[in-house]
Amino acid sequence: MKYNPNEIEAKWQKYWLENATFKAENNSTKPKYYVLDMFPYPSGAGLHVGHPLGYIASDVYSRYKRHQGFNVLHPMGYDSFGLPAEQYAIQTGQRPEDTTSVNIDGGTDKEGNKIAGYRKQLDKIGFSFDWSREVRTSNSDYYKHTQWIFIQLFNSWYNKNSDKAEDISTLVSIFSTEGNVNVNAVCDENIEVFSANEWNAFAKEQQERILLQYRLTYLAETEVNWCPGLGTVLANDEIVNGVSERGGFTVVRKKMTQWSMRISAYAERLLQGLNDIDWSESIKESQRNWIGKSVGATVSFKVESQKSKVESEQQYIDVFTTRPDTIFGVTFMTLAPEHELVAQITTPEQKAEVEAYIEKTAKRSERERMADVKTISGVFTGAYAEHPFTKEPIPVWIGDYVLAGYGTGAVMAVPCGDERDYAFANFFKGQQGMQEIKNIFANVDISEVAYGSKDNVIIANSDFLNGLNYKEATKKVIEELEKLNQGKGKTNYRLRDAVFSRQRYWGEPFPVYYVNGLPQMIDAQHLPIILPEVEKYLPTEEGLPPLGNALVWAWNTETNQVVNTDLVDNKTIHPLELNTMPGWAGSSWYWMRYMDAHNEKEFASKEALSYWESVDLYIGGSEHATGHLLYSRFWNKFLKDKGFAPTEEPFKKLINQGMILGTSAFVKRIDLPNSYVISYKKGYENNDDSEVFKNLFISNGESKKILEGDLTIFKKYFLDAIKKKYKVEDSQEVVEFIHIDKIEVNNIHADVHFVNASDELDIEKFKAWREDYANAEFILDDNGKYIVGREVEKMSKSKYNVVTPDDICNEYGADTLRLYEMFLGPLEQAKPWNTAGISGVFGFLKKLCRLYFDENGLIVTNDEPTKDNLKSLHKTIKKVAEDIESFSFNTSVSQFMICVNELSTQNCHSRAILEPLAIVISPYAPHIAEELWSLLGNKGSIATVDFPLFDAQHLVESSKEYPVSFNGKMRFTMVLPLDLTKEQIEEIVMKDERTIKQLEGRTPNKVIIVPGKIINLVG
């Protein structure tokens, strides 16, 4: 027999599929365990070897849990809506649903590109997924339930008294009997107070507008990240360095009417919930920072230019501050450039400068503005506000370090106590509208730097706060502000309500139509509202979202059907929402759908939700720390409030796998600087030598010489090229003089598939790769080879360093790939991929097989195992179980290698050892484990066989190999039982012939014996 991985793996993958080996039950008597992988987006590029890392880890754990007797749910599906498919559709004219389907199932797209398909790639690696529960967010049977959840959010409000979401009908009931004066809700700011009589007298449309101010999902004009190049709004995590992550397009801040979600209602619960889950501290800290809880006070500053108006029309600048104790240190105020008051209070003299600054700021994302602490910029509005206590005028500026989305979008600047305010005040020092910095801290020098600490602060130069510490002053100033009706204590959060609209096509349609401009929900019984066909995926000529191109996109309230758009009469046929839901809509609840994937009536049955409860282990990338993970927790908490989700938190334990990096290959191209001089002899003066240097590549070692100033090899190449070009025997017939100061060597990515394990480039493949390289020339090294440069980078198609798992599986087998990825290093660390290491793991699997069979067949015996056999096995059982439980998968693979080496040395072929060994290794290398299990005569799959029990007695040493030393020098060793006394050991040693020979008749002065450690004869 011979180890043939391709044959073995195809056999067992077929067996698993036909026998539904990994199908989980919803009502098993076994204990449940739910393992989840981060929802993948199915790109046309398919998987590279970095993608399966987390999947392999979760699969090892899932298989181990099955061996332990758990009913394991380990599902897989696809987050298949999103911008990439739409952009590809725009570029190629293909339907997003077609390209998405090909990306998942494999095939050839209309561009002629062969797509491997995610499903086939995943199957090839041998994952124990329960494919019967597969979901795709772009399938209407899935997004039907996403639409339903949206309707539940729309029909809910957040009651601060009960600290949970409640049905909007309970709010209507309060309004109709009490009005809203006592309602304690998370809602819009500046809600007008009304009585029960007034509410009942309001027209239906007015009531709907008021309810929109309370609903958990609502329409509002919001500052958004607008990307004109993509024609859509982007989330903060879709923007990198001020441009879109997808395509690198400019992003500007813009006000638009958008659907938003009141995630801010759950800020405190999201914060406190972090204490109850087993996540890495770094991820928790990311979420804490994103939520951004701060305790302080709101302060209202009267706008001075409004003094002449009646009090009811008086405008105020509201600020939130965590340091109300420093209020007497305010020397100026700063508004966000987008603040709604800016246009109203700016004086005519400052208008042009303010407007120019606002336009410039709109091109920077919020994240960029938050991160940029070095750039200081701002403009004086010309307006002043009134200090609530001193009544002094305070100049009002705008500056982009203040964000409209955080706090109130305004800052009371206290330069003596804040670094940014201090830098701003000093930068604009002496300019109109910038006052001198006031020091309100006793015995503190602020001549060079602000004093931001709250500790040991004694307030000074602050009227009634003088002599008080931070806590005393804070309490006192809040009391006084409340007396003036110009402030109160408040807890604030950085977390803003989440924009839930995207101006694109390929996303979930909203179940919303409009009557007189007000949103109405389509009844749940009529869902799904299916995404319509459109001819163009770009916005309309009027700038409407792509759904504005749909010919059939209106709602008939009589027939409850989607009908032709041109039938809209705003009586019985109304326009449907043109925006679609964002990418995070479908991924905010998908783990629950896996629990009951084929339920047509509800997103999951109460019984299924009650059985599985929540995810026990979630493995995925840290890039989702604040986006997906925060939104998922929000939706889970909301569904818990409404009685659907059984637990407060969706994911008990979260592990972030590190990235597998690619090892890029670089060819070195020579580029001459403009400063070189070559003079030609008569008849060649007008020679064009550019062709000589076009696409000239030099081997890595030789390029280093050039960079060090040794141009010998280049000059030789150049002169040889001249001889060849002009067909002369001596280059001096053509060239009179050459002067080159230096040569530039540029790195150009080469496809790693053209490079072997010795870093040698296949020149012919490289030349055939691209048309412009067809005539490339190569300066080789002394061995006549072209050696590439190497560098570890992110694995990416653009860097041509992608290694696909398909190639590894075809050549070495999936078990080799699985073991190697686990062997690379700790799961949570980044590590470089090196294909050269694969052969060692492949060799290990062949060595494992030789314990079970040779070329003639099975060689396993029923011989009793030796103590050494048992020791090797149980050492491995113990180590592997501990490693899997602690997610230290790399050290398990090392232990397998040690064990197999030991058993090979021991010439062990005992069934009593090899049968349990196959089980222990099966989570990592399931195909060969299944084959070995079958060869041993066992029926069925190894997947659910009990994991071997560790027996500690096999690791207890009964004897010890002692080093026997004479005057501290070891002369020989002897094996003695560990239960001997000192006297018994001494007697045996003294009678040993080797001792007698060493002593040569002498009697030692002392015999030092430490049982279990040393024997030393002195003198």
Name the overall outline. Answer: globular
The percent range for helix content is 25-40%
- The rounded distance between the terminal residues' Cα atoms is 62 Å
Radius of gyration: 37 Å
Low-confidence stretches: 306-311
Percent in strands: 15-25%
The major pleated sheet works out as:
7 strands, mixed
Total beta strand runs: 41
Keywords, separated by commas or semicolons:
1019 residues; alpha+beta; seven-stranded mixed β-sheet; six-stranded mixed β-sheet; 32 helices; globular
Description of the structure:
Residues 306-311 have low confidence and may be disordered. The longest helix has 19 residues, at 867-885. This protein starts with a helix and ends with a strand. The protein is built from 32 helices and 41 strands. It is 32% helix and 20% strand. The strands form twelve sheets. Strands 13, 14, 15, 16, 17, 18 and 19 form a seven-stranded mixed beta sheet that branches. Strands 28, 30, 32, 33, 34 and 35 form a six-stranded mixed beta sheet that branches. Strands 2-1-26-27 form a four-stranded parallel beta sheet, with helices on one face. It is globular. The protein is of the alpha+beta class and 1019 residues long.
